[in-house]
Amino acid sequence: MAKNLLIVESPAKAKTIEGYLGKDFTVKSSYGHIRDLVKSEDAIDIANGFTQKYEVPADKKQVVNELKKLAKEADIIWLASDEDREGEAISWHLFETLGLKDANTRRIVFHEITKPAILKAIESPRKIDYNLVNAQQARRVLDRLVGFELSPVLWKKIKPSLSAGRVQSVAVRLIVEREREINKFKPEAAYRVVAVFTTGKNREVFKAELPTRFVQQSDAEKFLNDCADAIFNISSLETKPSKRAPAAPFTTSTLQQEASRKLGFSVSRTMSLAQRLYESGKITYMRTDSVNLSDTALDAAAKEINSAFGEKYYQFRKYKTKSAGAQEAHEAIRPTYFNHHTTDGDSAEVRLYELIWKRSIASQMSEALFEKTTAKISISTRKDELVANGEVLRFDGFLKVYLESSDEEEENKNDHNSENAILPPLTKGQQLNLRDLNATERFTRPPARNTEASLVKKLEELGIGRPSTYAPTISTIQNRGYVVKEDREGKTRNYHVLTLINKKVVKEQKSEITGAEKAKLFPTDIGVVVNDFLVQHFNGIVDYHFTAGVEKKFDEIAQGLEDWTKMLHKFYEPFHQEVEETIKTADKARGERDLGIDPKSDKKVSVRIGRYGPFVQIGEAVEGEEKPAYASLRAGQMIETITLEEALELFKLPKKIGVFEDKEMTVAIGKFGPYIRHNSMFYSLPKGVDPLDVDEKAGIEIIENKRQADADKLIKSFKEDPEMRIENGRWGPYIKSGKLNVKIPKGKEAAELTYEDCKVLADAAEKEPKKPAKKFAKKK
DNA sequence: CAGTGAGCGAGCTTCCGCTTGACTT
């Protein structure tokens, strides 16, 4: 029988440690926190020093019971939860809930899961640090008070079931404010001049650019004309060495960012893949804010670099955390075994593993060395000089395995930049042959919309949220409908290009797509209304620096410099006052906006949020008079930005366009685009057709075309039941039984199936359990 | 793939952080 019970937070960790400690130790996991505040209003007794009422949630009862039993049988209980605020609280909750005794309980901590680290920890146990526990309680209580007092204000003033909190509300605010910056942004055009020169016998080609841009087209044109007969010489040539150092190994946040940029993973996908790698022992813990590598890891990395790449590629490095709120209870995310350059598993797992391996290995490698060359080119007819930049890699160093990407790079990838190309051999004074010269109109860019990962980056910079909550927070603000992750189509924009051809300037107009977005975060109307309400009435809470401020207080509590109940009182009293005041005095917020007057009816046009979402209204509801006209906004339209014209357009549809086979045809726009409704059937309009242009004749044509296409698809129909048919689909034939599509089992020939065969298959398919509507459906 | 948009009232919603499943494809 084991004499010792050691409890950690994660079962995967428990398994590893059990292997290190031998049979005198039973190592178990608490699966994170084992208790939480009760859900009801009496969870916190404010008048009584913020006394808390805790309960063991249903899904934790089993764990707690097992731990209780094992604790009774053990001589010594080792509480080995993480060494941070939350970890200390977990130990305290375990102590309380399991009914442990001071005499045989030991609190130990370690930062890395290695045998020496754990043995060392066991040699120097301590007591539970109640200052740290108090800091956690203050954090927990403050979050509950903020969340559970603020949310009901929203239910009263905006809509039921809404939520607000210290973290999520700031996340939404970041998205709303970024969207406003983008809407406000006015792009400025200027001409960028690029010249292409040839040199030497082989007529090698390189590009040079004018450092200044011309706002006026006439200035750009004059420049080009001036160059028509000019002589170009290298006026100066400068070569400077430069170097680049590798990035620190991954934390949760940087892993999410790189996996998003390089692999296109959402933050939750990254985390669940990382969890799988962690559970199968391939990487260290994936929820961390530390950039530290353990000594054993450093040794292993050094060994691997020396043997795989050679000594000159190795460089010992120690990284310091940059994020203010870091608690560093774990190591950085790294492979468990540096000599495993790749791994098995599905391709996403493999790609994430390789990313982690490369980043970790590169972090202990030498700098990359470059030679940067800048050539200035004089123009005999102008004072301006053209500049050509070249970069030559002299030693690859860490670039042999890994190059960190950046958001800016993503931004610039459309801009055909000539920067950092390789220059041919050049000499000072050398005369160059001009091959091409043009001036292209370029526009300043609005600030970039956030991706999930770039939002995580900002939250981390502000010290808001923790590694374990970044992914859930991003999901929450989407699930609440405050923010949507969407693709949006761009708009066509014209720009001008001036080109010097045969010593004459030729003007050309070209067009490009601008503003197209893929998987970016957009605020919704309800997100905007909730945010504006919170900013107006609870500015202190949604202030970007609120968390940083309270974190400072929590640190003081943790150091025993501040009393946690005093701190909470100081916060709570004015906050609660604000809540009461707002409930009493604030108006209901519907985000209403007046767009102007409808020229046809002379009535007021307004938009606001209704029960079913945002809608436009023409006129006002007055008793005894005709009801106002209503129309819902379409996807991509927002209260804040819709114009009067766009709003009035909404009333042109649905439109009756005529009669076909004694039934009316109606054109409307639905979730999947414009369609014709006829005899309870839907017919999508062909792409590019304006629904307002569709008349009776065009409508009939569309319906007949669709019927013809359906007939072409038909393989077989049955007299017994007109709803039952076999059709040719994209992936081969299938049975269509009413609304249900049924796969044809392998080995059966579609054309030979009888009605009875189809009926049996369809009935079987009907009985099959339907997949749930959402992955994480509502909790009961 | 609708068009809707009044009011009342009971009963419900909601936070952040620490952990994994149990589900699909």
Automatic annotation (TrEMBL):
The record marks 33, 139-140, 143, 155, 287, 480 as: Interaction with DNA. Signal peptide: none annotated. GO terms for molecular function: DNA binding; DNA topoisomerase type I (single strand cut, ATP-independent) activity; metal ion binding. The keyword Cytoplasm does not apply. Monomer. PANTHER family: DNA TOPOISOMERASE, DNA TOPOISOMERASE, TYPE IA, CORE. Belongs to the type IA topoisomerase family. This is DNA topoisomerase 1. It comes from Mucilaginibacter arboris.
